[in-house]
Inverse folding.
């Protein structure tokens, strides 16, 4: 069982849809992350929030919009995605600094 | 571009053998190193953290770090079929005030019964 909870587990959306991925942790961690993972590739960093402020954006296209409403919650808003955006989207949290990341179970996204 | 290099494998070992997984990294100032295990279709799971030179043991797992050689390894003793997974080496890149975890491409391990 993971202490980082992601919803939904699976999501199928059309290219004109708007949807959101949600992530929640109750470990008191102050850093939260979004990663994207394609099949047989390592996770790729998208965004980092540290103390609820966006600290890293890895040049992610604007069709992905992160939001951190509070220290426990992280959202990823999706709009006008492309089929190549289909992937496993992973949320993670850490105590910040050089602490290890703890991952949620991920959301499997398919864009049709 | 700071890099983390791993042999992609696949690495195949018989049940009960020692599996040895290796990783090198390019950034000399890196201080924090992790090994994650990822089963097919699942998310990465942290199995070891190591911050100082030398060995760190946890059950059947031993992580070894050599900062002078920029090398970190993971040994799995008494390998079991349930250890079959992709093992990801990860290194913290502390550029300025931001801490970024960079993954290697992963080594696929198969333990044969």
């Amino acid at each position: 069982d993971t202490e980082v909870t992601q919803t939904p587990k699976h999501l199928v959306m059309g290219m004109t849809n708007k949807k959101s991925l949600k992530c929640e942790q109750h470990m008191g961690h102050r850093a939260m992350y979004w990663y994207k993972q394609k099949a047989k590739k390592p996770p790729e960093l998208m965004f980092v929030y540290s103390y609820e402020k966006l600290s890293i954006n890895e040049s992610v296209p604007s069709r992905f919009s992160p939001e951190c409403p509070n220290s426990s919650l992280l959202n990823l808003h999706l709009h006008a995605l492309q089929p190549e955006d289909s992937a496993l989207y992973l949320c993670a949290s850490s105590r910040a600094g050089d602490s290890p990341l703890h991952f949620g179970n991920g959301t499997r996204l398919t864009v049709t | 571009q700071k890099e983390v290099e791993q042999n992609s494998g696949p690495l195949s070992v018989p049940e009960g053998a020692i599996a040895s997984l290796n990783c090198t990294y390019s950034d000399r100032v890196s201080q924090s190193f992790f090994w994650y295990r990822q089963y097919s279709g699942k998310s990465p799971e942290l199995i070891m953290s190591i911050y100082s030179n030398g060995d760190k043991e946890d059950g059947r797992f031993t992580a070894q770090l050599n900062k002078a050689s920029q090398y970190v390894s993971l040994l799995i003793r008494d390998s079991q079929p349930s250890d079959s997974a992709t093992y990801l080496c990860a290194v913290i890149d502390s550029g300025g005030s931001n801490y970024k975890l960079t993954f290697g491409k992963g080594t696929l391990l198969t333990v044969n019964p």
Notes: The CA atoms of residues 34 and 61 of chain A lie 14 Å apart. The first strand of chain A starts at residue 4 and ends at 7. The interface with chain B takes residues 2, 31, 33, 41-43, 45, 48, 50, 55-56, 88, 90, 96-106 of chain A (CB under 8 Å).
